[in-house]
Design a protein that fits this description.
globular; 255 residues; alpha/beta
């Protein structure tokens, strides 16, 4: 059975870094590749995973829309078959991780039908994996429209600030208001330097989210991030890696 984990959080919290560290930990739990879906239009998860930048679902969608409007699709292949073939060709396959990038948002016009097809195709693709990790933009609309409607675990990532924690609580509430079936939502506080202050602990408690992990600030992770280097091969001495691995051991019991 597939476990789908989505990450969300405001910009600057290290959400993509946490996604890469989570994927790193999951690859140590399974002999199968993990499916990573970069649903953030900024599209930089591939660097954290050490993979080439793939063609995006957004580009595929736009090309198909243009071809359909120009009458170039023909009748020999259906739209769903065309999209399925193109999505599979766009999947960047690594040794431990396969990556699909969603790319930029829609342009002008109605994309409801093609987005519905994309969501079906991606859901079908995800069922072939034990773990699917979705690195999402701050809100949840992207997941609802184009990625999936079923999320086993939503991890909301915050930095150790009152503003960040309030935003995390808002994102978790937003997930309840859109058409996404979130089985469980939890909080990750990232880049924590030292002990939590009483004020920060009170702000964490105020989110009413169960804490999945407190990830310590990690100079090596920050260095690799700054250089755009992959995080998959960090050694086990990394404090951030240890925190995420311990979290992953606990989260695996939710599947």
């Amino acid at each position: 059975m597939t476990m789908t984990i989505a990450l969300a959080g405001k910009g600057g919290t290290g959400k993509t870094t946490v996604a890469a560290l989570l994927i790193r930990a999951l690859t140590r739990r399974t002999s199968q590749p993990v499916l990573a879906i970069d649903a953030d239009p900024a599209t930089n998860l591939h660097m954290a995973l050490g993979l080439p930048m793939p063609a995006t679902a957004g580009e595929i969608r736009e090309d198909m829309m243009d071809a359909a409007q120009a009458g170039q699709l023909g009748v020999s292949i259906s739209r769903v078959d065309h999209l399925t073939r193109e999505i599979r060709m766009a999947l960047e396959e690594g040794d431990q991780v396969d990556l699909l990038a969603m790319g930029r948002p829609e342009g002008q016009g109605c994309y409801c039908a093609v987005n519905h097809l994309l969501r079906q195709i991606i859901d079908d693709l995800g069922r072939k994996y034990e773990y699917v990790v979705v690195d999402n933009e701050a809100g949840m609309e992207h997941i609802a429209r184009r990625t999936t409607r079923d999320v086993d675990l939503l991890l909301v990532v915050s930095d150790p600030s009152l503003r960040g924690l309030r935003t995390a609580a808002s994102i978790a509430e937003m997930a309840k208001e859109i058409e996404v079936n979130v089985r469980k939502a939890m909080l990750i506080v990232n880049r924590v330097d030292g002990e939590l202050t009483p004020e920060l602990q009170a702000a964490i408690d105020a989110t009413r989210l169960e804490v999945a992990a407190i990830i310590p600030a990690d100079a090596r992770v920050n260095q690799l991030d700054a250089l755009g280097q992959p995080l998959l091969h960090l050694d086990g001495d990394s404090p951030a890696c240890r925190a995420v691995e311990a979290m992953t051991d606990r989260l695996a019991n939710l599947s």
